[in-house]
């Protein structure tokens, strides 16, 4: 079944935060952040949200504070995702975090990984800075990188895989930093395969 992608607003602290939502909330949830040049609509335009709702996933793509249609919140990186996930009542979501959004996602992984089902790290910023805190975190993680990334080099994917015992790499050949934009079909294949594996394992455990 395919669901419409709805535009919604939630209040975090005193700011109105805009997001896109699709799919059945009873199904496994995938929460999308975005890079500095993008916003929630990027995932809609790329077809990611539609593909995942067709696969029976519940999707949410956030405009991070100060981006897209969301108002700014100052000095709130560490507290934003815990507040957001609690307000949206997301249980064991898979968090997708490209580039700039690493300033939100990595601190969340360090402190609250037990609240997630999986993590998709798309060349996020902050791996070097947080390497010691990330060491040993067992959250299932897929590190997606473009082989030609000059901003966050692919060596940082190798580092993430060494630090996190349940992490693995998925390298998109001949593309740079915003690899999902340049090779969307390969990106979607890898993303959906990972989400399927993570959610299937969880269902079997239940």
UniProtKB/TrEMBL annotation:
A molecular function (GO) term: hydrolase activity
Ranges in a coiled coil: none
Lineage: superkingdom: Bacteria
Keywords, ordered alphabetically: Cytoplasm, Hydrolase
Keyword Ubl conjugation assigned: no
KW Hydrolase (keyword) present: yes
GO cellular component terms listed in the entry, alphabetical order: cytoplasm
Domain AB hydrolase-1: 28-124
Gene3D superfamilies registered for this protein in UniProt: alpha/beta hydrolase
InterPro entries from the UniProt entry: AB_hydrolase_1, AB_hydrolase_fold
PANTHER family: AB HYDROLASE-1 DOMAIN-CONTAINING PROTEIN, PROTEIN ABHD14B-LIKE
Family as reported in the entry's similarity comment: Belongs to the AB hydrolase superfamily. ABHD14 family.
Protein known as: Alpha/beta hydrolase fold family protein
UniProt lineage: Bacteria, Bacillati, Cyanobacteriota, Cyanophyceae, Oscillatoriophycideae
